[in-house]
């Protein structure tokens, strides 16, 4: 809201310089966002919160200035001159929609001379950004700015039948509004109609047909209270906010309807030579029921942490227009009709705090009394702590955490999934990027990889912990996932040359993550088809403790082509709560071995169709409980030793007996048995 | 023979003293302690002495031997650096070897830091769903239907019933529905508003909501807690001010400003010459919110506050474009 300092001074004495005034207003809840000097005046731009429609006027702001600075406030005169003639012209007004219109005043003026607006009024309006139209229209705008009451002026002679009906629009009705647009009305719209048709869109826009022209002689002035919700719906539907609709949707004052009409009458008589000839119709409610609020100084203290004296409290409230009845430390307050936001004691407390100044409220720390160990004292959730540890671990492994949008475009989804019907659509996106809720983290991770690649940052080891969204049996589900993507050159330095990230780097990171929490937990992999993973390349499910935790593999070529990504891109997506459940098993101490272990290495050549996991399982089975550890320590494919279709694998086996030292013979016997087993599986033993 | 030993000691010591390289010292070691050294000769001559003198002389000779040896070692040590340099061929100025680490996302770092501050103040961290109903996002928070105050919380809808929360205040309601006061929580999370993306707007961002409900908490305590928080987060010299404002779910309500961290309150581009930066919204829990969740508003008071994580992160690190957070350019991420 823009206000003129010069205009405000008509209603309140202002001694403070502009900067001090702005500061006081800001600290009083009327934030001054801009001040601008204009032709000897200063225009203040003040942010008005939606609970204070009374501040959408110079009078309202002047009243608050008076309260905040302790200066006196005075209202302008609004007693109009008396009517000259009575009831000579027909005027019938009826409110059909009583919920839509609580009060309606129609006042008829004759012998109006449409003409120039007095210079001082014109200047005030123009300084505040209003275009001068003619004296009558300007007066209605002037009252809107002064009193906050929107008014409308009809050309009486263009109203059919001398009748005005306030009703809902009928299906199919149209109205040519003053902005020259033919509007098709909605049955929710509230209209002012004459005997035949709508002549105005109540509270939003006037109609072209009854607009004042240079020849207008008789003016019908409207001052009304329209239902905020109705006005807001119409204004939203049409996408039009006018100075009038803005005030009506926040709620004008029922009493102000009369004040506005009276003030306008005075100005019409003075500046448009208008004679009020009657008739004067005032229909509907004159006021809302008065409310009383009880509050004590103790209540103030309990809410604010401070309470001013009885006399100060009374003075503050009276300055804001409240009637105050004090008995000792107890107050009964009747708020003014234009302050419908004052409903209960906390509202009064805020007013006291505001006028007193929040900076006068002390800064305290709540004292904790001794209380039983209840709900108030709870540890941070395990899930949160573990999530933080997972993130820190991945960072220590060289991965960067990213944060990406939860929403994405259908086009992006289609790159990853042939079926695009399962993702949850957003009903009112304002861009394509917001069409769907993401069903997987990998989509945006791939996009991040592409963003970086295209800027020549080719090494992209990243992860995100965040939600994915699904609809499951009609219910919306949010699940937190851990997504990992590795692409480009892996870690390396001048001693160890780096190699490109591949599936084994990814698998290794996942295993290291799991082992860092629970060294005894085995990672099991199962072949799994995933829509966006390469069907020829690795595409696996990770199983921990017998439950599938997530997937890992290489992005399908169709995806990498879409993003124009070079090289292999490996990704994993794990369900965070499944992962946390698996790795949060409580650890148990096992006694340290009392006897030395014995190591044996096996090097073998075997067909590629046999997996290393299978061989390890075979070794363990044959070795029995003495085999403590089996690990792969080398692979080789030198064609001089390894025939095509085969590969060389080397394992180290550690034997241990819990109760005694194993003899060489015992170990050799087991070892031979293991060799035999491996041979039976087609392995050629190279050395032992 | 005693004299011979004394003379030998003097000459050996002076020669060692004058030696300038380890090579020369090694030569002196052979000269004075080797098989053809004077000391070796003396020990051979020992047989010619009378038996009662032998032990004493032997002892003396051995002591001198030790003295010369340690003198040489001492000198070698003094020449020190040269000794190491001579035998190593590696360039020790090559970079050290380490595993390159990644980084936490700046938003994640700030959320962690803020939650940590509130943990030390006895708050508990909770999370709530992002897909919510109108009830939790609006009605229970005293935001009336078809009221202009809903405009500030413009919202994405999924269908007639479900929406994407436009604020983390929803978590207040979720927690108070389930648990009885006293309560102290902070709730970080994603929120959504249909905004066009530009340098200062994003349709998705993060908020942290805080709530303290007890029999005896006041607005002055809210001032205390947020003063502690802003000093911890922005530095001990940070000034803070509370401005009356309007939020449907709190009364009295305040917007919280801190003295501009760039210009210290004198006015600059970042604070639009105001000297202050708005960083939080706060207030006393509105009785209607308590009514919605069945907390007796005569027995209990509470305060709530909310902050935008992106804004705080941008201020903390001097970032001027919100889009950088979601582009995840590694050259950006590596800076934090």
Summarize the SSE layout with pairings.
The complex is a heterodimer of chains A (688) and B (336).
Chain A (H helix, E strand, L loop, with lengths): L1 E3 H4 L9 H10 L3 E8 L2 E7 L10 H12 L22 E4 L5 E10 L8 H9 L7 H13 L3 E5 L7 E6 L5 E3 L5 E3 L5 E4 L4 E4 L3 E2 L12 E8 L1 H11 L4 H8 L3 H18 L3 E10 L8 E4 H8 L5 H10 L3 E5 L2 E5 L10 H12 L25 H15 L3 E2 L5 E2 L1 H7 L19 E2 L4 H12 L6 E13 L2 E13 L15 H15 L5 E5 L11 E6 L2 E8 L2 H7 L5 E7 H8 L14 E10 L4 H12 L3 E10 L9 E10 L8 H17 L3 E4 L1
Helix pairs in contact in A: 3-10, 4-5, 5-8, 6-7, 9-11, 18-19
Chain B lengths: L1 H17 L3 H12 L4 H8 L8 H26 L1 H7 L18 H15 L3 E2 L5 E3 H4 L24 E3 L5 H9 L4 E10 L11 E11 L4 H16 L5 E8 L2 E10 L16 E10 L1 H7 L7 E8 H9 L6 H4 L2 H4 L3
Parallel strand pairs in B: 1-4
Antiparallel strand pairs in B: 2-3, 4-5, 5-9, 6-7, 7-8, 8-9
Summarize the structure.
The complex is a heterodimer of chains A (688) and B (336). With 688 residues, chain A is of the alpha+beta class.
The number of strands of chain B is 9
Tell me the Rg of chain A in angstroms: 40 Å
Topology order of chain B in helix (H) and strand (E) letters: HHHHHHEEHEHEEHEEEHEHHH
Most extensive protein-chain contact, per-chain counts:
A-B, 92 and 85 residues
Mean pLDDT of chain B: 89
Structural class of chain B: alpha+beta
How would you explain this protein's 3D organization?
With 688 residues, chain A is an alpha+beta fold. Chain A has 19 helices and 30 strands. Chain A has a seven-stranded mixed sheet with strand order 18-21-22-26-25-24-23. Chain A has a five-stranded mixed sheet with strand order 4-7-10-11-12. A four-stranded antiparallel sheet of chain A has the order 6-13-5-14. In chain A, a hairpin with a 5-residue loop joins strand 8 and strand 9. Chain A is elongated. Chain A starts with a strand and ends with a strand. In chain A, 40% of the residues are buried. The model of chain A has no long low-confidence stretch (mean pLDDT 92). Chain B has a seven-stranded mixed sheet with strand order 1-4-5-9-8-7-6, with helices on both faces. In chain B, strands 2-3 form a two-stranded antiparallel sheet. With 336 residues, chain B is α+β, with helices and mostly antiparallel strands. The longest helix of chain B is centred in the first third of the chain and has 26 residues, at 54-79. Chains A and B meet through helix 6, helix 9, helix 11, helix 12 and strand 18 of A and helix 6, strand 1, strand 4, strand 5 and helix 9 of B.
């Amino acid at each position: 809201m823009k206000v003129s300092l010069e205009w405000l001074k008509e209603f309140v004495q202002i001694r403070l310089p502009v900067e001090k005034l702005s500061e006081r207003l800001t600290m009083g809840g009327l934030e001054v966002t801009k001040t601008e000097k204009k032709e000897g005046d200063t225009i203040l731009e003040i942010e008005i919160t939606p609970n204070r429609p009374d501040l959408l006027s110079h009078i309202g702001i002047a009243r608050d200035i008076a309260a905040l600075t302790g200066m006196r406030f005075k209202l302008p005169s609004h007693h109009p001159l008396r009517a000259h003639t009575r009831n000579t012209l027909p005027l019938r007004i009826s409110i059909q929609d009583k919920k839509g219109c609580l009060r309606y005043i129609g006042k008829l003026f004759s012998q109006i001379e449409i003409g120039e607006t007095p210079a001082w009024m014109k200047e005030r309006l123009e300084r505040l950004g209003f275009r001068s139209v003619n004296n009558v229209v300007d007066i209605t705008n002037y009252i809107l700015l002064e009193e906050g009451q929107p008014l409308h002026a009809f050309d009486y002679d263009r109203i059919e039948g001398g009748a005005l009906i306030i009703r809902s629009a009928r299906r199919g009705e149209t109205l040519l509004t003053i902005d020259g647009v033919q509007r098709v009305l909605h049955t929710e719209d509230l209209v002012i109609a004459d005997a035949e048709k709508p002549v105005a869109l109540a509270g939003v826009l006037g109609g072209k047909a009854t607009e004042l022209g240079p020849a207008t002689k008789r003016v019908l002035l409207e001052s009304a209270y329209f239902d905020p919700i109705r006005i807001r719906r119409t204004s939203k539907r049409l996408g039009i906010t006018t100075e009038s609709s803005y005030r009506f949707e926040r709620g004008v004052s029922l009493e102000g309807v009369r004040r506005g009409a009276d003030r306008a009458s005075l100005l019409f008589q003075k500046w448009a030579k208008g004679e009020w000839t009657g008739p004067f119709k005032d229909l509907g409610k004159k006021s809302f029921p008065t409310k009383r609020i009880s509050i004590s100084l103790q209540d103030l203290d309990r809410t604010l942490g401070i309470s001013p004296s009885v006399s100060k409290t009374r003075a503050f409230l009276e300055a804001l227009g409240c009637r105050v009845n004090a008995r000792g430390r107890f107050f009964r307050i009747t708020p003014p009709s234009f302050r419908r936001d004052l409903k209960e004691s906390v509202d009064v407390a805020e007013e006291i705090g505001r006028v007193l100044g929040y900076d006068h409220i002390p800064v305290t720390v709540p004292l904790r009394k001794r209380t039983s160990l209840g709900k108030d004292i709870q540890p941070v959730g395990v899930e949160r702590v573990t999530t933080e540890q997972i993130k820190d671990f991945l960072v220590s492994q060289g991965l960067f955490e990213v944060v990406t949008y939860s929403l994405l475009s259908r086009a992006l989804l289609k790159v990853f999934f042939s079926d695009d019907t399962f993702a949850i659509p957003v009903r009112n996106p304002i861009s394509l990027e917001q069409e769907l809720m993401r069903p997987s983290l990998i989509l945006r991770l791939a996009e991040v990889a592409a963003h970086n690649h295209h800027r020549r940052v080719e090494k992209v080891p990243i992860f995100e912990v965040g939600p994915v969204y699904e609809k499951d049996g009609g219910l919306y589900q949010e699940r937190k996932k851990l997504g990992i993507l590795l692409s480009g050159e892996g870690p390396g330095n001048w001693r160890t040359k780096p190699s490109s990230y591949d599936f084994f780097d990814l698998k290794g990171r996942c295993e290291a993550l799991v082992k860092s929490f629970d060294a005894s937990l085995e990672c099991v992999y199962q072949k799994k088809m995933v829509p966006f993973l390469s069907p020829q390349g690795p595409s696996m499910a990770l199983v921990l403790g017998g439950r599938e935790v997530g997937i890992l593999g290489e992005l399908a070529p169709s995806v990498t082509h879409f993003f124009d990504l070079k090289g292999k891109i490996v990704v994993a997506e794990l369900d965070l709560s499944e992962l946390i459940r698996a790795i949060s098993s409580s650890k148990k101490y096992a006694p340290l071995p009392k006897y030395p272990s014995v190591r044996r290495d096996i090097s073998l050549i075997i067909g590629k169709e046999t997996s290393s996991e299978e061989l390890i399982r075979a070794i363990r089975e044959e070795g029995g409980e003495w085999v403590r550890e089996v690990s792969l320590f080398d692979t080789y494919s030198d064609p001089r030793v390894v025939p095509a279709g085969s590969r060389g694998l080397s394992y180290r086996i550690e034997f241990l007996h819990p109760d005694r030292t194993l003899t060489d013979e015992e170990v050799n016997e087991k070892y031979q048995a293991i060799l035999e087993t491996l041979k039976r599986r087609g392995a050629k033993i190279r050395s032992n | 023979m005693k004299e011979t030993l004394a003379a030998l000691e003097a000459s050996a010591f002076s020669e060692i003293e004058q030696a300038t390289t380890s090579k020369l010292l090694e030569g002196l070691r052979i000269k004075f302690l080797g098989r053809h050294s004077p000391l070796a000769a003396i020990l051979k001559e020992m047989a010619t002495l009378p038996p009662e003198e032998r032990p004493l002389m032997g002892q003396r000779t051995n002591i001198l031997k030790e003295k010369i040896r340690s003198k040489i070692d001492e000198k070698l040590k003094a020449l020190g650096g040269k000794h190491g340099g001579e035998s190593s061929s590696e360039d020790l100025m090559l970079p050290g070897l380490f595993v390159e680490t990644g980084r936490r996302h700046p938003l994640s770092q700030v959320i962690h830091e803020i939650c940590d501050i509130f943990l030390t103040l006895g708050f508990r961290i909770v999370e709530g769903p992002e897909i919510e109903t109108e009830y939790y996002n609006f009605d229970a928070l005293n935001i009336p239907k078809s009221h202009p105050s809903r405009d500030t919380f413009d919202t994405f809808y999924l269908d007639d019933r479900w929406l994407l929360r436009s604020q983390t205040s929803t978590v207040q309601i979720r927690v108070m529905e389930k648990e009885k006061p006293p309560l102290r929580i902070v709730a970080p999370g994603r929120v959504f508003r249909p905004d066009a993306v530009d340098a200062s707007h994003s349709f998705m961002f993060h908020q942290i909501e805080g709530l303290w409900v007890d029999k005896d908490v006041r607005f002055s305590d809210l001032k205390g807690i947020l003063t502690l928080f802003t000093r911890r987060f922005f530095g001990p010299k940070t000034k803070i001010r509370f401005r009356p404002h309007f939020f449907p779910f709190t009364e009295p309500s305040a917007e919280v400003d801190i003295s501009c961290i760039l210009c210290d309150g004198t006015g600059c581009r970042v604070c639009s010459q105001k000297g202050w930066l708005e960083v939080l919204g706060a207030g006393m829990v509105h009785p209607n919110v308590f009514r919605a969740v069945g907390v007796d508003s005569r027995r209990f008071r509470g305060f709530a506050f909310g902050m935008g994580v992106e804004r705080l992160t941008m201020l903390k690190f001097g970032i001027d474009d919100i889009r950088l957070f979601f582009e995840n350019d590694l050259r950006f991420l590596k800076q934090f």
